[in-house]
Design goal:
By secondary structure, the protein is α+β, with helices and mostly antiparallel strands. The chain has 13 helices and eleven strands. Strands 1, 2, 3, 4, 5 and 6 form a six-stranded antiparallel sheet that branches. A three-stranded antiparallel sheet has the order 7-9-10, covered by helices on one side. Helix 8 packs antiparallel against helix 9, helix 8 crosses helix 11 and helix 11 packs antiparallel against helix 12. The radius of gyration is 21 Å and the shape is globular. The structure holds adenosine-5'-diphosphate, 2-acetamido-2-deoxy-1-O-phosphono-alpha-D-glucopyranose and magnesium ion. Magnesium ion binds next to loops.
């Protein structure tokens, strides 16, 4: 559980960052499952200004300096590319880290917690559920452009902030290990979900095999392309900025596209317990393919384009495995707001896998229809 704002001394934290003005306090913000995020208000010479303060989850991210090194490099590159493209407003189109006074990209508090500060991106917002196919198209375009941006990232290979993050085989093994250990005797009540996981085991190797056979390349990818990790402009609804950069590291383009399918096409919230409300929305899927190919179509390989639909099925299954594992292990990873929250999420994701499964061939035809060879 994140601490209540009363226990976070925002004024003291604010003094550690290279910020000016008077700190007026902060509030919990957003719906992320991992970090503790706050919006913090300032009075800067009479002008109200907001910042995002985030306590980085160092149970999940074991090496925070390495993580922040990645983020420093990626945000600097994104800003320099945005500046080259022109059009002003670079600070809205790339996350801007406010360093600590000593120049470090984050600071530590008296409890050993790690905090970072970003400029608040104004006149834009994230959504938990896609409202229109145009939303999906613009989000996918933004994530595709982000992948393109990362193809030119200078310097050494990025740190792997969570090893095996999209190793679906490993995620499956983790579930089976949790089922065997069953620390809270929860497994018996979720036999149907465990059986579903077992029946779908063949899915866990498909992306890794495509990579191992050389058909799809390693790239630098975002790895957490959930719809609420991109900010859309309030007026135009076009993508302003890709956020939540903690997992930017080597990966497969299909991990990113698969997570877009998982998080965007669902007609219900990720934790909706009424499974009759869960379905894969084809017009939203078409929007994703259209936006993603518009941004990334010319650098993706034919094999990547051919497996877009499959990636949605694999990554939805993978995240379902992770939610079910966390339920069985006692809700130790994802933030939860109610008992059984992770189980609701797992059931929801598996319901989405079933629907994607039923509509796989229809989904497969979309990319062929929408892809235009670059002139
Ligand atoms: P988590 O890793 O926990 O998901 P995020 O980095 O995604 O945390 O942040 C949580 C939420 O906070 C986002 O979904 C978004 O709504 C909001 N947010 C994060 N960074 C910014 C920012 N720079 N400006 C405005 N809102 C932000
Ligand atoms: C987490 O941080 P957030 O809420 O954007 C998770 C993703 C999952 C997602 C499921 C670092 O994303 O991998 O797909 O929840 N991030 C991490 O909603 O584990
Ligand atoms: Mg997030």
């Amino acid at each position: 559980m994140p601490p209540s704002p009363a226990t976070v001394d925002f004024t003291r934290l604010a003094r550690g960052f290279a910020l000016y003005g008077q700190c007026l306090g902060g509030q919990p913000y957003g719906n992320g499952h991992i970090n503790d995020t706050y919006v913090v208000n300032f009075d800067q010479a009479g002008a109200p200004v907001r910042y995002i303060f985030q306590r980085i989850n160092n149970r999940v991210f074991k090496n925070v300096p390495a993580l922040m090194d990645n983020i420093r490099r990626v945000t600097a590159h994104a800003a320099s590319q945005a500046a080259k493209l022109g059009g002003g407003d670079v600070s809205r189109r790339a996350l801007t880290l406010i360093p600590a006074h000593d120049g470090r990209p984050c600071l530590t508090d008296e409890h050993g917690g790690f905090w970072r500060c970003y400029l608040f991106i104004e006149k834009a917002r994230t959504y938990d559920i896609v409202e229109t196919p145009a939303h999906a198209r613009e989000a996918a375009r933004a994530f595709g452009n982000f992948q393109r941006l990362l193809t030119g990232l200078p310097g050494a290979r990025l740190h792997e902030t969570i090893p095996d993050f999209h190793n679906t085989r490993r995620r499956y093994e983790n579930l089976m290990r949790a089922v065997n250990a069953d620390p809270l005797n929860r497994a018996a009540a979720v036999r149907a979900e465990i059986d579903f996981a077992r029946q779908n085991e063949p899915l866990v190797d498909v992306l890794a095999k495509l990579h191992a056979s050389g058909e799809i390349p390693e790239r630098v990818t975002h790895n957490d392309t959930k719809f609420n990790n991109v900010m859309l402009d309030d007026d135009t609804h076009t993508g302003v900025c890709v956020i939540d950069l903690d997992t930017v590291m080597p990966g497969l383009a299909l991990h990113d596209f698969g997570d877009m399918v998982r998080s965007a096409t669902n007609s219900a919230a990720e934790d909706e317990p009424d499974l009759s409300k869960v379905s894969m929305r084809m017009p939203v899927y078409e929007g994703l393919v259209e936006g993603y190919l518009a941004a990334a179509g010319d650098f993706l390989t034919g094999a990547e384009r051919a497996h877009l639909a499959l990636s949605g099925r694999v990554i939805t299954f993978e995240i379902g495995l992770r939610f079910l594992t966390d339920h069985i292990e006692g809700d130790v990873y994802f933030k939860t707001k109610r008992p059984g929250h992770n189980l609701d999420r797992a059931r929801n994701q598996f319901a989405l896998v079933r629907d994607i499964d039923a509509r796989q061939s229809e989904m497969e035809s979309v990319a062929g229809r929408l892809f235009k060879e670059p002139a």
